[in-house]
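Box S1 | Example of a co-folding query
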Amino acid sequence: MKKSSWMGFMFLVMVMFLFPQIGHAAGGGTGIYLDGKALELSKNAQVQNMSGNVMIPIRVVVEELGFNVDWDTKTRTVTIQQSDTELKLVVNQSTATVNGNKVSLPVAPKLMTDTVIVPIRFVSEQMGLSVGWENTSKTVYLTSPDSGSGTGNGSDNGSGNNNGGSDGSGSDSNVNDTANLANVSGISFNNNQLMIAVDKNVKPNIFKMSEPNRLVVDLPYTQFASAFSSNQSLDSTMNGFFDVTDYPDVSKVRYALFNNNPSTIRVVIDMNNAKNYTLINNNDGLIIVDLNADSNDNSGNGNKLVVIDAGHGGSDPGASSVTKKKEKDFNLAVALKVEKLLENEPNIEIVMTRDSDTYPTLQERAKLANSINADIFISIHANAGSATASGVETYYTKSDSLALANVMHKYLVQSSGLSDRKVRTKSLHVTRETTMPAVLLECGYLSNSKDDAVLFTEDFQNSVAEGIAKGIKEYLGM
Ligand SMILES: [Zn+2]
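Box S1 (continued) | Returned holo structure for zinc ion
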């Protein structure tokens, strides 16, 4: 992305008003990298962590990405414009608008001395950036969509599991021990196959994205081998690409160090036409993504794509239990158990909307599932209501989801051992806006002391996760 040329005098005046270079020192040690380049932050415009949300001074977005920014002192409104996207954020208001549509923010923008800080997750994702957050060094890594289309919807950020926002737990301090990472020594495209050479076993996460069509291959726990750049293009920001001219479906292969924690290389195949693929990964040092497959099914390789959505997260705790436990923690614990149970299932691919204590918006959750053409969407929640209400419910919105709801509910009742509050229909964002069969499971009542007493036990969570996994398999005919 290049700096826009429209930044005129008035704009600079506004920026100077908003972001003067003087100020008090804030907690340092944090940094922002954009496509590998460190951004300069003034002393009063530092990265902040507010209730688990990484907040950044908006100026860095403005200056480095060339977005058009306007500040209205009276209404305390920041307007950010990029191509066809217009974002409006108001200081201290947790609702923003994107092209006139209301969207909720994990945290309201704040005026710090003279600098507006905004949740990076929101702004960057709305602007099509991918976000990585390294907790140990408190560093934000931004990756701009390199398609150059700049429409704000071209984010490659589809896997949903490597975004900003920190739970501050720091428990993964050893995941980036470079000795444990697999080295990627070569990436090539031949015989209509993408080939990636690795020196350890890697479990790639592959998904399709559209507009423009591309196939994204994430390689968790990998790094570029030191010799990589001597054989292939790789710039100092750990980005490289090569053009593909001899296969009509493919125009380019791009690769980058996409995320730092865990260290993840992302390879993107830019497609001229949507194509199906087969993953060949025999743990023999070569990962092959074969585009010769000629099947019409939309899941590409015949695998079923299941999106598991742990409700709430990050700044949104969900319901609170009788004993003050948080719904978001229950949801995530069960979701991770389901993922684990199905991770070795040969014909199922699991995509998580979140796998840590972060808050993807409802829109992002639905968009993720739609953009990868998921086969089913399962949202995991626990309910709250009157103190006497107890038991499990399964919600769906669209009629194409009823069959899934019935199967999932049967297993939810069985595995929870709680009373059957039936399959219900309700207009909920994630079950309404997703384009595949989608259900939302309420796995018990946090407001009920009997339910609350079991919901956070390992036994209950294991059992419910097993029930959900069984339901998914039964519905998919496996
Ligand atoms: Zn909930």
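The domain at 6-143 is CATH 3.30.457.10 (Copper Amine Oxidase; Chain A, domain 1). Residues 140 and 205 are 22 Å apart (CA to CA).
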